[in-house]
Amino acid sequence: MTTSLKPPATGANAAPAVAKSNVAELSVSELSNAVKKTLETTYGYVRLRGEISGYRGPHASGHCYFSLKDEKAKIEAVVWRGVYSALRFKPQEGLEVIATGKVTTYPGSSKYQIVIEALEPAGAGALMALLEERKRKLGEEGLFDEARKQLLPHFPRVIGIITSPTGAVIRDMLHGFDERFPAHVLLWPVRVQGETCAAEVAQAIKGFNALPIGGAIPRPDVIIVARGGGSLEDLWGFNEEIVVRAAAGSAIPLISAVGHETDWTLIDLAADARAPTPTKAAEWAVPKYSELIDQTAKLSDRLRVGLRRALEGYRSALRAAERGLPRPQDLVAMPRQRFDSVGQRLGRALNANTAAHAQRLSRIAPRLQVRLLSQRIETADKRLHLAWQRGSNALARLAGARRTRFERVSGRLAPRIVLNRLERWRAMLDAQANMLTSLSYQSVLRRGFTLVRDAQGRAVRQASGIAAGAVLDIEFADGHIAAAALQPRGDPVGPQLGTGAESAPTSRPTGAKKRSSSGGTQGSLF
Questions:
Q1: For residue 276, which of 261, 373, 393, 408 is within the disulfide window of CB 3.0 to 4.6 Å?
Q2: Cα torsion angle, 345, 348, 352, 355, sign
Q3: Contact 77, 68 (CB under 8 A)
Q4: pLDDT beneath 70, residues of the chain
Q5: pLDDT (0 to 100) of residue 203
Q6: Of 507, 447, 510, which is closest to residue 481 (Cα–Cα)?
Q7: What DSSP state is assigned to residue 12?
């Protein structure tokens, strides 16, 4: 390095005291990139513990931007879209987390930040706070209400199990089914721990519900979601919102058997039943065969005893009713006596009736001689002939009267008489039409008069009823014109009306009776 030995100038010509060296000149971009490289090389991956601040959800691009802070400092944080979708725990405002990522800078704003690649709550306390908040939110939506829970079927034919196919849980459950009540089991294999656990469990619940009834794969009558015990972090997949919503929306009754009896997750609250262990869930799902045999035997014994007691009771009641009934001969004694009495009376009544009819016939027989019948027929024939003659004479007289009347009317209806009468009526009609034409106001208008109407269409008969500025309609023989009154009655018209007296007659009929100086009225046009 070389340094100038020339002493600095003084006075007015003195230059600013600036240290001169051979340090390379950098642009802002070069300096920013150098700082970025130094920061990334020095720190690399770090784990930061802090509280999430300013989180507003994913950006439109899918990336997340927020800050991590403690009581003394704050650092900007970013989660890229691909990393966000794979995060086991999603960021939430105010949640204390441990973020694993890479420290770098953002040259566009000259600030450093951490690019997060893994995120987890800072201890069980944070997880419990997150769990309680999610429980409160889903509970307000009614997903945990007891009213929406379904009853478990008593004899399920098909059981769907959602669990890991390699764990001890499925073996214990299958062994429990074999011991209690062999059933058709469908296993939907899922991961019961890890980042994809929640999505796989939710999809399995929806998949069982989507199976059609009577399809190639039988639809389960009950679903069991099972997992062995573990820590809160291990069971966290069953606290995810998508799992809780899938369990609450299941149309098939669902049993939750996650963890041991002391463990609990949000799926336990949304399920229709919560078993303390997976083995207990298998016991709840199906009845025990030996217990069914014992219960069936007990019910059969109770049925036999009940039937025997019922038959004894009916037999006793029948005997008591039998003792209360009268003897059969006593029941038919009175009807038999009445029958005998009626039989005796019937013979006597028939003899009396026959005698009465014979006596009556003997009285009527003399009146049934042939001569009497012939006389009655002749009398009826004469009366009929007389009535026919009277009817013929009456009809002839009526026809003659009608014929005479018709001849008189037909004489008055000669064509000549009718034509003369029509001519007289036509002449009378023409005369009345001429009179109507001569008396109508249209004929008056054709002689040079006009008709003045106001705005309502009423005829104006006096000038005193017209106010200044009133709108008038003046009808001539060949049409109408609109006009407005310029001066009230009695005011001079003046030269502003144009041609003087030539325009004045339009306000009233020119042939009407003149108004006298003492205020006479205008004559009617009709």
A1: 261
A2: positive
A3: yes
A4: 1-21, 123-126, 414, 487-526
A5: 93
A6: 507
A7: G
